[in-house]
């Protein structure tokens, strides 16, 4: 029997639909009214699952700038290609995670991987925007391309479900991603009927995004595909039951309690810093790709 008490549930949020670039059909449950309760997380973009028709010209997003935060991309189906003006490039397939630090600024481009684009298929991925402390906003850009086989797993108590530890430490298992502030990111896969308890520090902000399937929390509160659950800080435990086969992304971290100033692709602490970011981008200070020089 699933316990009926646990970490307080603030809200269950549905996402808004949008299209990003020419290749990403997206649902976004944040930013929204609970963004303060999910710091350091700023944004969730869930692409797909969507069909990709075969083409010789990969679709995606053209080069665009970022400064002052990180993007984290988790791929569930399909293949994605990345490049940026800091000299990083890579491809992502099912189970892989990309953790990109924009830092002082760069341009990057994300498109369907060329071979995947040629054959077509189904694409599904999740991208997070993650804030960093003020002291790290102008750090050098960094690129962590984390392969599926390098992400350790923890089994649920009944041995039926699996929890992939992307960052932070969970049940004594450390994830491979390096972060600027304490963040525990878990990719959770639960067969229908699985009951489990996720335990995280009570002072962390915690959210659970349902990538697919359905769950109940604390025995009576449901959430389903493409809904975000925002929790409070009173207790460490979240008690879950998968009422269907479910994939969840658990977002947990110490809040960054600093001023937040945002404008499009820039996340800083003051408006003055935003003005400087815009000026640096417009003057070419965030780099150029070779074909644009």
UniProtKB/TrEMBL annotation:
The UniProt record lists the Pirin N-terminal domain at 27-130
Q: Which domain of life is it from?
A: Bacteria
Q: Which residues form the Pirin C-terminal domain?
A: 186-286
Q: Which residues form a coiled coil?
A: none
Q: Which family does it belong to?
A: Belongs to the pirin family.
Q: What is this protein called?
A: Quercetin 2,3-dioxygenase
């Amino acid at each position: 029997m699933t316990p009926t008490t646990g970490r307080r549930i603030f809200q269950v949020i549905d996402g808004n639909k949008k299209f990003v670039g020419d290749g990403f059909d997206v649902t976004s449950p944040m930013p929204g009214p609970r963004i303060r309760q999910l710091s350091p997380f700023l944004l969730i973009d869930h692409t797909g699952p969507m069909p990709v028709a075969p083409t010789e010209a990969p679709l995606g997003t053209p080069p665009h700038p970022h400064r002052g935060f990180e993007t984290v991309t988790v791929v569930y189906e399909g293949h994605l290609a990345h490049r940026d003006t800091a000299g990083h490039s890579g491809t992502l397939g099912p189970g892989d995670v990309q953790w990109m630090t924009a830092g002082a600024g760069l341009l990057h481009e994300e498109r369907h991987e060329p071979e995947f684009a040629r054959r077509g298929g189904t694409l599904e991925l999740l991208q997070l925007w993650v804030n960093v402390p003020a002291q790290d906003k102008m750090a050098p850009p960094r690129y962590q391309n984390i392969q599926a086989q390098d992400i350790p797993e923890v089994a649920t108590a009944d041995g039926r479900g699996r929890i992939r530890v992307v960052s932070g430490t969970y049940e004594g298992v450390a994830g491979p991603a390096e972060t600027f502030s304490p963040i525990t990111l878990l990719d959770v896969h639960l067969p229908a009927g699985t009951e489990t308890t996720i335990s995280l520090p009570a002072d962390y902000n915690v959210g659970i995004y349902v990538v697919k399937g359905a769950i109940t929390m604390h025995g009576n509160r449901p959430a389903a595909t493409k809904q975000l659950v925002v929790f409070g800080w009173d207790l460490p435990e979240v008690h879950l039951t998968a009422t269907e086969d479910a994939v969840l992304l658990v977002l947990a971290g110490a809040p960054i309690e600093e001023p937040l100033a945002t404008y499009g692709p820039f996340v800083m602490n003051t408006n003055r810093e935003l003005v400087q970011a815009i000026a640096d981008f417009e003057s070419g200070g965030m780099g150029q790709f070779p074909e644009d020089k």
